[in-house]
Amino acid sequence: MIVLDRRSGPLFFTIEELHNVPGMPAVKGTDLQRRLKSQAEAMGAELARADVASAEGAAGDFTLRGADGASWRGKTVLLATGVARYHPTVDGDFRPCFKYAGKGNLYYCPDCEAPLIAGKPTVVIATAGARGGAGMALGLSRYTDDLTILVSGPGAAASASQIERLEAKGIELVAGEIKRLVGRPGRLEAVRLADGKTLEADAFFVSSPARGRTDLARQLEVEEAPTGHHAQPASQRGDTNVPGVWIAGDLRPMTQQVAVAMGTGNIAAVMIDQYLRRRDVA
Ligand SMILES: Cc1cc2nc3c(=O)[nH]c(=O)nc-3n(C[C@H](O)[C@H](O)[C@H](O)COP(=O)(O)OP(=O)(O)OC[C@H]3O[C@@H](n4cnc5c(N)ncnc54)[C@H](O)[C@@H]3O)c2cc1C
C-alpha cells in the first residue's frame, strides 16, 4: 500500500489543539499526524510526498500520475483529498490568517469549537457573503449573545428571515475589507478595516465555503454529492459508483472532523481489504 500526500492539509499546520478526537483530548495536529504516519509505516505502508495530478483506469488497474511525471499503479484507490478552505483576505492576501488559524482564537469549525466562545464577544468573518455569515452567527448565538458579523467578501445577501432573527438577537452586520490583523502570537485581538474601523473581540469565527478537492474523483467519474462540492459515497462504507474507488474524510459530504475522517477511512480500508480478498478467491 502506498499513501500519496502533498501535505497541505490542516494537520500539517500546527493546529495547537484539536477538539473532539476521542481518547486524545487537546492533541496537537502535528503530533497526531506523526503518530498516524509511524503507525502506518509500522504496518508496512509506504508514505510518499507527491502531488497527484491525474487518475485513470478501472477496478484492478488504476494509474495515478504526479505533477512531476512520476506514476503509481494500484488495484484499488482510496481518495481522501479533503476540502479547500477559504481564509479571509487581509489587504488582499489570505496568508496572514495562518498565524492564528488553529493556534488560538480564530476558529473555523462550529462543530469542533463553538463551545470555546461561550459568553465571549465574537466576530464572525463572512468570506462568502452575509447569508453564510448570518447562518453561522445564528447558530453560534446559542453560546454567546455578543456577536457581530463582518461581511468581508462577495456572496449571497442575508435572507429576510435571517435579518429578522439577527435584529431580534441584536447581531450587527458590518461590511468591510480587512486591512490588518491586530494581535500577538496565538491571540487575535482585533481586525482593522480599510475604512479605519476596528472590530475588537475575544473570539473570531470564519464563515467560508469548504469545498471538497474533487478533481481526482471527477477524473475517475465518481458521482458528485448533491452539495455540489463533495464526492458521493454509494453507501456508508465509502464505496462509490466506480468499482474499485473508495472515498473517505472531508471529501465526503459530512461534518469535517478528525474522528469522522479516521472512521470513514477505517471502514473504507476494511472494505477494500475484503474486496481484494474476494477478488483473490474468485
Ligand atoms: C483550522 C482548523 C481547525 C480544525 N480543528 C479541528 C478540531 O479541533 N477537531 C476536529 O475534529 N477537526 C478539526 N478540523 C478539521 C480536520 O482537520 C479535518 O476534518 C480532517 O483533517 C480531515 O481529514 P482528511 O484526511 O479528510 O483531509 P485533510 O486533513 O485535508 O487531508 C487531505 C490531504 O490530501 C492532500 N491532497 C489533496 N489533493 C491531493 C492531490 N491531488 N495529491 C496529493 N495530495 C493531495 C492534502 O494536501 C492533504 O494533506 C480543523 C480544520 C481546520 C482547517
* Proportion of residues in β-strands: 25-35%
Shape: elongated
Ligand inventory reads: flavin-adenine dinucleotide
Number of strands: 17
Rounded average pLDDT: 94
- Element-by-element helix/strand order: EHEEEEEEEHEHEHEEEEEEHEH
State the end-to-end CA separation: 21 Å
CATH topology of the largest domain: FAD/NAD(P)-binding domain
CATH homologous superfamily of the largest domain - what is it?
Answer: FAD/NAD(P)-binding domain
Description:
The structure is a single chain. By secondary structure, the chain is of the alpha/beta class. The protein has 2 domains: 2-83 and 211-281, FAD/NAD(P)-binding domain (3-Layer(bba) Sandwich), CATH 3.50.50.60; 87-207, 3-Layer(bba) Sandwich (FAD/NAD(P)-binding domain). Helices cover 24% and strands 27% of the residues. The chain contains 6 helices and 17 strands. The chain has helices at 29-42, 110-113, 130-140, 160-169, 215-219, 258-281; strands spanning 2-5, 46-49, 52-58, 61-66, 71-74, 77-79, 83-85, 106-107, 122-126, 147-151, 172-175, 178-184, 187-193, 198-200, 203-207, 210-212, 245-247. Strands 8-15-9-10-11 form a 5-stranded parallel beta sheet. A 3-stranded antiparallel beta sheet has the order 3-4-5. α4 links the parallel β10 (147-151) and β11. α3 crosses α4 (160-169). The model has no long low-confidence stretch (mean pLDDT 94). Bound molecules: flavin-adenine dinucleotide.
